[in-house]
Amino acid sequence: MNYRKATVKDLNQVAILFDKYRVFYRKESNIEEAKVFLKERIENNDSEIFVAENENQLIGFVQLYPLFSSTRLKKLWLLNDLFVNPNQRGKSIAIGLIEKAKQLVQETNAYGMFLETEKSNLIGNNLYPKTGFELNESSNFYEWSN
Fold first, then answer.
1. How far apart are CA 73 and CA 110, in angstroms?
2. pLDDT recorded at residue 144
3. Alpha carbon 63 to chain centroid, angstroms
């Protein structure tokens, strides 16, 4: 398994995975908009996307967004998206992608990374503690939408 940073050349394959990820979270499928969104992220350096590749086929990805902590005076990374094709699960691919994300944190001298997932995401809620994430029960998470 090869884990590497995604490029614009990967756009078609990453968009398919990204679309499946969005459908998992009950969003309507739209591969063309997914391509536009991901292309903007890559070209504008808005995020870091790493892919899992096996025999020139992309089978998973992780996308992280940079944030900053005023209290820590350091960069943080938001692990926003993680997806592995369902027919490739159970092969530790998600763990490999999380390891690439951890390398990014170290290479950028960031404080750490955090993520949010639905309570109903049993796979993720089982996976994240196994990879060193700790559930922060001392904070409240608030959301405002326009």
1. 10
2. 87
3. 3
d(CA 84, CA 5): 15
Domain membership of residue 76 as a residue range: 2-130
Task: For residue 14, give the DSSP letter.
Answer: H
Number of structural domains found in the chain: 1
Low-confidence ranges of the chain (pLDDT < 70): none
d(C-alpha 49, C-alpha 143), whole Å: 25
Q: What is the CA radius of gyration of the chain?
A: 15
124 part of a folded domain: yes
Residues 6+ apart with CB under 8 A from 24: 83
Task: Look at residue 144 and tell me if it is in a domain.
Answer: no
Q: Rounded distance, CA 34 to CA 32, Å?
A: 5
79, 94 in Cβ contact below 8 A?
Answer: no
pLDDT for 14 equals 98
How crowded is the C-beta side of 114, counted as CA atoms within 13 Å? 12
Q: Could you tell me the two tokens for 51?
A: 């892919």
pLDDT (0 to 100) of residue 33: 97
